[in-house]
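Late entry, evening session. Most of the bench is empty. Finally got around to the prediction I had been postponing all week. Sequence below, unchanged from the version circulated by S.P.
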Amino acid sequence: MTLRSSVTFQIGCDIGGTFTDVVAIDSSGRSYADKSDTTHGDLTIGLLAALENLATQVGVPLPGLLASTTRFVNGTTVVTNAVAELRGATVGLVTTQGFGDNLLIARSARNAHRDHHKQLNIPQIVAREHVAEVAERVDRKGRIIVPLTEAEARQAVGTLVAAGVDSIAVSLLWGFANPAHEELLASIVETEHPGIFLSVSSRLHPVIREYERTMTTVLNSFTGIRVAEYTARIERDLAARGLRVPVAFMQGFGGTVTAAEARQRPITLIDSGPAGGVIGARELARRLGIRDIVTADMGGTSFDVSVLRDATPQVTQRVTLGERFLTALSKIDVLPIGTGGGSIAWLDARGVPQVGPRSAGAEPGPICYGKGGTEPTVTDASAVLGLLDPSSFLDGRRALDIDSAREALGREIGKPLGIGAVQAAVAVHRMVVADMGNAVRGVTVERGHDPREFAMVAFGGALGLFAADIARSVGIRQVVIPADAAVFSARGLLSSDDVRTRARSAMWQGGDVSAVVTALRELDAELVAALRAAGYPDDRIEVRWEGEFKFAGQQWELRIPIPRRDDLGEADLAEIQSGFPAQYEKEYGSGTAWVGSPVVLMAVRVTATGRVDPVDIAQQEPETGAVIRPLTRRRVHLPDSGEAEVDVHGALPPGAVVAGPALLEHPLTTIGLPAGWELRVDGWGNYLLTDKEVAA
């Protein structure tokens, strides 16, 4: 096949812990999708393998596909894995004299565990011998009290370089109020040690709260070298194979940046894959006219859930990464648990079945993959129950070894419990449903939402077999499984815009607003210039101003929109102050406002968005009255009702309706439809599941 010169593509790729997913949508609205194993030694190997599979589907060599690509968006686990595994650069920290133990004290770091044996201090990313203190002091108004001499600055940097650090973070007390001392240190690193990766707190996050600012700066340096190597490699390898456009990289708060900007602020790429899934679910919900959704994503290593009210992602401020590191980052609110298709099943000290958080990952993977795995996983349990066809997994590219999976489940789970392998597989399935149901309750019931008022958008290669069971366990009546569910996070990347966001401390309680206005205008100009440099015309750039307000004495702020006007004045901010109690109670409930307490502005934030061309999927007219016949029937072990023969369907046309119990085998995933559920295919190929028992 030869591509017509008028046919162009947009490609999204999500590199997960187990699989690398790719999606291409052509200019006529046709979609292509595929996946391959993630190759952790060199992530581009797995990406190129997936792209080769994709090019085969399109019917052209990979260079031809890439040459016809107008947008390429990447979501990656590089930063997430570096933080989770504590594998990053050797970081040196320069800080103010007397504050070298800031990271060690860590706000007296504690977690939510009731077991005091688990109340441990956080890991130290910066070794104490790699902390250099300098005699300098700036006060809270930015006045220099103790000047930093060039000699001392040079000595501090030289000491760290001599100690063997390959990355430096600079974070001085009140450095955001006056960055002169931080800039002196930065200039020495940049001119005398250009091979050292550098993060400067006043450039990265010039906002009050020393610990969060310092931790964010340190983590940026900790992950910087790996991101620099990764982004350079992916750009080089794709360009060598024909890609003519820059690669865009997804950020955790839901927008893309260029490779150069990703290298400057690598920490913003944290959780970029899950963010892509949430953005994709937002667009899908809007298309289907659904307002309130729970997103659920089950891949090979984790299950991620999020709540969208009015199809709007929730953005969390001052994010704690890995339940350990309190940062100044903002990102889409996603709750992850260690339950994925590759999660390992085991028995705890009480003999109770558990699943995860350890995962077999891509290597060796589940036992049934035949790649050397020895510990039974969730996928092995599904295979033993007969829910997966051993000859059609991954569109027939991987035969499943059911016998080995059955033997391992019997040995590791069944024998200690005095049950057979099938019953052990049922126990694993039920445990997975219980764990994931609890995660859904965690983002709904525990946060004041009634899950019965939500629909679930369920995606990820492994979730189709569990989605209906999870939904029923929490009272959700409708489940939407996207047409490209197995690669939906990659698809969601193409629904994201180019986004830049910056914050700056600008404290105000009343009176002169000139400092606030100056901060907003300077951030505005910086971000608009960045988007213009990325190729966006002014009519495709949207800018939003916000202020972080709180009642005096509170720890946390609430973001409130600020009108973006040339004549912004005191009256505008005073109006926000007067309306703040109502906004606060809208967020936290009636009666929660601190009546009579002054309202304080702590910081301002500017977000600039470069709107990309929307990606539209071709819609087909649903058929009515068509007779739907299964491909075959298969004897399976249903976790809720025992052994039975069920209908097995393949591809279904728009308008098709199927009643459970049944299985639907998509080339890249399998959907389980329990008894009492009905499945309908819409014009875009999405699967709409309704719990008829509850609906009745």
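Two things to note before I forget:
The radius of gyration is 26 Å.
The mean pLDDT is 91.
Will write this up properly tomorrow.
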